[in-house]
């Protein structure tokens, strides 16, 4: 049971001005400082250093030197394993403090933050610590007088740019496998959610990660992020965020050193409910969580609800009941179920989508308004919009907010056509008691993850990645390691 007095003490803890973490030490940046405003109440928490191009170059150089001299890349797997285990244990020991720090920065509700941020990050570091010495090379099936070996080599310097919705979780998805394979990393957090990752860098150093192996540069994307994307010294770039930024990163790679770029770009994920769903009440409850948790700021959120005609009205009524029961408010309050929208900018974008939905003929069943404005924070009531057509903006574009678009379908063929009628392909869900139908839907839906009779919950044992404009490459599972290694063939004449 979390002690509310601890939470209240952490809520008011003074956060000093932050610095860049480069080559094992804290430094001032040459760019413009960034003010950190809490979405909880609109108050300024602290400032971040803005990393200039020169600062990014220094971080990349520190990472390169650390990689080349072998202080980490040259350590035996057992030594790297020990450090990653220690990081996982420290994250767990500081879970509440890390969660509250992140919540003050980005507004996620406490129950979800504890599980999805330090809880997930610790599990991710532990998973890759366990995995790193179980990834063997290969012996090729050659002629008897030849020995063909395939080595997996670390790529060198990895640039990682992570978003603001789950900085610790997604940061760990990038950092842990990259470090496990012996790489050095330059991490660029989102300017609206950097605080927990700066603390993570400190934790890594305290747990024995050598200087220069992990560097954290903060600042705005158009300066700091662009500099990292264009760095000649960066070998691989991994990113989670918007499609617009993903395109810019690909352009930067093409204009610099052709570094490999892995992109997780979000989605417009269909949540498909058939009339034979085994438990409509449970489906409504889980579906509400699948779009409204963290104020809808989840890349795999089930933001398009496709409901079979015969149960449409009944299911929408159940979903409305679930949405209106959710307690929106101070994310550090014990009874809050939906926290704050990350920023004023994001809230304004969400509300603009609502205006567009109304203008295009959508029927707002509930929510979709700014609430609790007197707190100074950025809060929005969960919105359900029905009568959303396939060509509507709300059907096609990712909101990244607590807004659910509802569309009817008649049968399986139409459900598949609607599910695949966007440019995205990250996640999906199917609710049905028909096992054959479930398997047909899994095969037919273009998505990296298809849930059946649930939404969310997939752990580190399976990959997360999308198709189409949801990106390429995978986070989580052993498949994530493929992004951070190069294959080297040794062809030996015997």
Entry keywords:
494 residues, alpha/beta, Aldehyde Dehydrogenase, Chain A, domain 1, Aldehyde Dehydrogenase, Chain A, domain 2, 7-stranded mixed beta sheet, 21 strands
What would you note in describing this structure?
- This protein has 494 residues and is of the alpha/beta class.
- The protein folds into two domains: 4-265 and 471-493, Aldehyde Dehydrogenase, Chain A, domain 1 (3-Layer(aba) Sandwich); 270-459, Aldehyde Dehydrogenase, Chain A, domain 2 (3-Layer(aba) Sandwich).
- The protein has 15 helices and 21 strands.
- The chain has helices at residues 4-11, 53-68, 77-93, 95-106, 110-131, 167-180, 195-206, 221-230, 243-255, 280-292, 312-325, 344-359, 393-396, 412-419, 435-444, and strands spanning 20-22, 25-27, 31-37, 44-50, 138-139, 146-154, 157-161, 184-188, 214-216, 236-240, 260-264, 270-273, 304-308, 363-366, 370-371, 379-380, 383-386, 403-409, 427-431, 449-452, 485-493.
- A seven-stranded mixed sheet has the order 14-17-18-13-12-19-20, with helices on both faces. Strands 9-8-7-10-11 form a five-stranded parallel sheet, sandwiched between helices. The protein has a three-stranded antiparallel sheet with strand order 5-6-21, with no helix packed on it.
- Strand 8 (184-188), helix 7 (195-206) and strand 9 form a beta-alpha-beta unit.
- Helix 3 (77-93) runs antiparallel to helix 5 and helix 10 (280-292) crosses helix 11 (312-325).
- The longest helix has 22 residues, at 110-131.
- The chain is globular, with a radius of gyration of 23 Å.
């Amino acid at each position: 049971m979390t002690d509310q007095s601890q939470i209240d003490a952490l809520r008011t803890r003074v956060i000093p001005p932050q610095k860049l973490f480069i080559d094992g030490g804290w430094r001032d940046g040459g760019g413009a400082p960034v003010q950190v405003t809490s979405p909880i109440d609109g108050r300024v928490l602290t400032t971040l250093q803005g990393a200039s191009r020169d600062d990014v170059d220094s971080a990349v150089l520190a990472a390169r030197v650390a990689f080349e001299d072998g202080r980490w890349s040259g350590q035996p797997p057992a030594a790297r394993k020990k450090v990653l285990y220690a990081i996982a244990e420290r994250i767990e020991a500081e879970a509440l403090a890390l969660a509250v720090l992140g919540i003050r920065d980005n507004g996620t509700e406490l129950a979800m933050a504890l599980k999805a941020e330090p809880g997930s990050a610790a599990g991710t570091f532990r998973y890759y610590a366990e995995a790193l010495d179980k990834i063997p090379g290969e012996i090729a099936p050659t002629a008897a007088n030849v020995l063909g070996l395939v080595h997996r080599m670390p790529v060198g310097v990895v640039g990682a740019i992570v978003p603001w919705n789950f900085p610790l979780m997604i940061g760990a998805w990038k950092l842990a496998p990259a470090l496990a394979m012996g790489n050095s990393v330059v991490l660029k957090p989102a300017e609206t959610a950097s605080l927990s990752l700066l603390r993570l860098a400190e934790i890594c150093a305290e747990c024995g990660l050598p200087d220069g192996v992990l560097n954290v540069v903060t600042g705005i994307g158009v300066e700091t992020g662009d500099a990292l994307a264009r760095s000649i010294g960066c070998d691989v770039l991994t990113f989670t965020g918007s499609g617009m930024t993903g395109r810019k990163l690909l352009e930067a790679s093409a204009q610099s050193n052709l570094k490999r770029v892995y992109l997780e770009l979000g989605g417009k994920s269909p949540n498909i409910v058939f009339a034979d769903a085994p438990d409509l009440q449970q489906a409504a409850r889980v579906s509400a969580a699948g779009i409204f948790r963290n104020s809808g700021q989840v890349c795999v959120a089930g933001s398009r609800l496709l409901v079979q005609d015969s149960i449409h009205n009944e299911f929408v009524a159940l979903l409305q009941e679930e949405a209106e029961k959710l307690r929106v408010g101070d994310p550090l309050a014990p009874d809050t179920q939906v926290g704050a929208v990350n920023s004023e900018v994001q809230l304004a974008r969400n509300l603009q989508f609502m205006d567009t939905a109304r203008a295009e003929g959508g029927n707002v069943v509930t929510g979709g308004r700014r609430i609790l404005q007197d707190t100074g924070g950025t809060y929005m009531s969960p919105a359900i919009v029905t009568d959303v057509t396939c060509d509507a903006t709300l059907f096609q574009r990712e909101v990244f907010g607590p807004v659910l678009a509802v569309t009817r379908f008649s049968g399986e063929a139409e459900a598949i056509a609607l599910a695949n009628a966007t440019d995205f392909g990250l996640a999906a869900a199917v609710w049905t008691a028909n096992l054959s139908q479930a398997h047909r839907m899994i095969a037919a839906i273009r998505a990296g993850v298809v849930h059946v009779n649930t939404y969310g919950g997939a752990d580190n044992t399976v990959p997360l990645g999308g198709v189409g404009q949801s990106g390429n490459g995978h986070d989580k599972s052993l498949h994530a390691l493929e992004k951070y290694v190069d294959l080297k063939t040794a062809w030996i004449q015997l």
